[in-house]
Amino acid sequence: MRSACLLAALVTVLGAPAAASGQEPMSQQAAQKLAQGTFREFLELLALPNDAINPPDIQKNVEFLERIFQKRGFTTRRIENGGKPMLYAEWPRKAPGARTVLFYMHLDGQPVVDREWSQPSPWKPVVKKRNGAGWDVVASDALFGAALDPELRIFARSASDDKAPIMMFLAAFDGLKDGGADPAINVKVLLDSEEEKGSPAMRAAAEAHKELLACDALIIQDGPRHQSERPTIVFGNRGAAHVSLVVYGPKQPLHSGHFGNYVPNPAMRLARLVASMKDDQGRVTVRGYYDRVKLTAAEKKVLAETGDDEPAIRRRTGIQVAERVGQSLQEALQYPSLNVRGMSSASVGDKAANIIPHQATADFDLRTTPETPPEYLFGLLQKHVEAQGYHLVKGPPTDEERASFDKLATLTLGGGSRAVRTPLDAPIGKWAYAALQQGTPGAKPVRIRMMGGSVPTDSLVEALGAPFVIIPLVNGDNNQHTFDENVRIGHYLDGIRAITAMLRSPY
Fold it and tell me: What pLDDT score does 442 carry?
């Protein structure tokens, strides 16, 4: 009788028993039940401010999350981080002979400007449903109805980035617990407290707790799914490096009437120098910039299968023609980029003066790849600037340097993160693909070789030496990092099903 009851519970919560080709996916009804079991905790969590600039707020989030992880049977430990602790959790019951997977998520969020939000406060979650081009506020009771509407959304800071994946994860464990089951893998969890600040302490923390965090593979649960809204696996991310270029002119700003046509203007020189770095098709002209990136036929096939709607992307971004770095958006993202993120010389508008400025500055962000790390690209930029006739100095030039060289500039490499990537045929990728396919039947997962953005995974991946993939779970139109951030309930349900499939799949 007890065995029959246990089987019935498993069927109710997780779906039918394992079939010959693998386990049956969780039903939407089961996912709804599990989601509704976490919504009150989710709303409580969203009510906690979590900007990492304020350590007491981070501590409150950690205390709350530690409590709800422990409630489900996890052992926990805080990893100190200057008053902003990270939270480590581990499922204590080990699967004999199973591999260990570390799930990484983050509990901190972007800063907010309250007046920009279409609700009283970003820390007071609001449930809404789309009404044409706008949104109607509905009572939070709608989250607990017999038939949960997948089009409902919860609006609050970190609703999608990244508190929803944490709660989806716990809901999946609730399902296992209700069915009397344990994961088919050994499970560890790391909740970062400064991801939105670039995770400055992650490398040191990972090195100091290498044994605690040791794993066979790493799953990063962050970011939105592909625009097609199919289940998504990302195998890598570009890194980011900041570079500053200063071109020097006269010792101090000069009257343009007295010295125009005589003293070179550094803003004009900077403009020409920056323009020399790219052609009209948007390709970087710095010698060797793309040379190290080689895409195989198989990789190009995967890029093509992503299925981006590029006409729609051009309409959304308001451009007629894309740059020609690659044959598609996905191919373009596999190469390092060179982006001007700002230029300045003297004041403009009402504050503008009739002067020749004494210097002009351009700030760049370089998106790097594993083949083209920051130091390599910076070296190429140095050679390019020098090839345009510039003498590079460490700072404002001396009188001797001014007398010896016509063109003077300073090029400085700043901080950033490094690119990391897992091979498309790696076991972790095959495991995740099969699990997502099983968790969301009928939807072929999208494989993204390397996403264009940068996330601070490099420190963790390099310290632990484990392969990784990124599994985005939330809706693409979630407004993360800006006002009116939200998570779609249908994605919340899909996320529970996807995580459950991973937990139930031996790796």
Answer: 84
How much is the pLDDT for 10?
36
Q: How far apart are CA 135 and CA 122, in angstroms?
A: 16
- DSSP β-ladder status, 75-79 and 236-237: unpaired
Show the low-confidence residues of the chain (pLDDT under 70).
Answer: 1-23
Handedness of CA 386, 389, 340, 306 (dihedral sign): negative
What the chain holds in terms of domains, given with CATH numbers, is 27-237+420-504 (3.40.630.10), 239-293+335-417 (3.30.70.360)
- CA 328-330-333 angle, to 5 degrees, is 110
Q: Are 29 and 55 in contact (CB under 8 A)?
A: no
Helix, strand, coil tally for the chain in percent (to 5): 35, 25, 40
Q: Is 442 left (phi over 0), alpha (psi -120 to 50) or beta?
A: left
The alpha carbons of the chain give a radius of gyration, in whole angstroms, of 26
- 424-482 confidence digits (pLDDT tens): 999 999 999 999 998 888 889 999 999 988 777 889 999 999 999 999 999 999 999 99
In this structure, the number of other CB atoms found within 10 A of the CB of residue 148 comes to: 21
Report the SS3 class of residue 399: helix
CA torsion 336-324-388-273 (nearest 10°) is -90
For residue 340, report the phi and psi dihedrals to the nearest 5 degrees.
Answer: -85, 115
What is the reported pLDDT for 417?
86
Is residue 460 within 8 A of residue 206, CB to CB? The reply is yes
pLDDT at 318: 96
Q: Which of 425, 300, 446, 450 is nearest to 370 (CA)?
A: 450
What's the gap between Cα 304 and its chain centre?
A: 22
Q: According to the model, what pLDDT value does residue 22 have?
A: 54
- Strand positions, DSSP E, 25-125: 75-79, 86-90, 100-106
Please answer whether residues 235 and 431 qualify as being in contact, where contact means their C-beta atoms are separated by less than 8 angstroms: no
Q: For residues 231 and 240, what is the distance between their CA atoms, to the nearest angstrom?
A: 26
Q: Give the angle subtended at the CA of 42 by the CAs of 37 and 46, to the nearest 5°.
A: 170
3-state SS class at 424: coil
pLDDT for res 440: 86
pTM of the model: 0.87
Residue 21 is predicted with a pLDDT of 34
Where in 82-125 does DSSP place strands (E)? 86-90, 100-106
User: Minimal CA–CA distance to 335: which of 291, 301, 375, 374?
Assistant: 291
